[in-house]
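Example record

One chain of 220 residues, shown exactly as stored in the release files.
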Amino acid sequence: MTQDFLLRILCAAILGGLVGLEREYRAKEAGFRTHFLVGLGAAVFMILSKYGYDDVVKTELVRLDPSRIAAQVVSGIGFIGAGCIIFQRHVVRGLTTAAGLWVTSAIGLACGSGMYVLATAATILVLLCLEAVSFIHNRFGAKTISLTFSATTREGIREVLDTLQKETVDVLSYEMKTHRSSEGEVYTATMRLKVKRDHYQSRIMSFMTEFDGITIDNIE
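Predicted structure tokens for this chain:
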């Protein structure tokens, strides 16, 4: 029985780690170690929930629910997932990683129950979802970026805006501030842009170098 338990937690750790490797490759908030531990921990809780009190059940007239501990994993994993979710600049980040941790805990529970085929199939589906959707999104989808740049004249700002519209880049928000420096007035514009993902960063960088007197302060 002990060898079977070891096999279950090993399988859970490996499958959770595979999901974590994909998140690590994408440089997300939770990577290999987090998913590895979540899968491993969920499997241990599942085994403890099902078999941890066999000695009590055999010796006393006690009825226990084998899902009592495992059920708490489903809600408890929400605390870890919440730590991956970030609200920044009106954009929510980390939802996919939080969902990945949630499903990794389910994979760990399945391994802890000895349902290896189900756990393996779920892991394959998770990886297919993350990689396939990521490829399609990067190839055909759009991305919202924040761009801050400075110009020495108002005409330079207007020229950039006019060219962005010709490039079919959607300007979602726009703010301009003026401040004085030793060289005179400097105009700083902050924009949120919606551009195609496959070439957004290189295109924006090359695009901004086409204008004289334009300096990129920040792009993210």
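Notes: Residues 86 and 92 are 6 Å apart (CA to CA).
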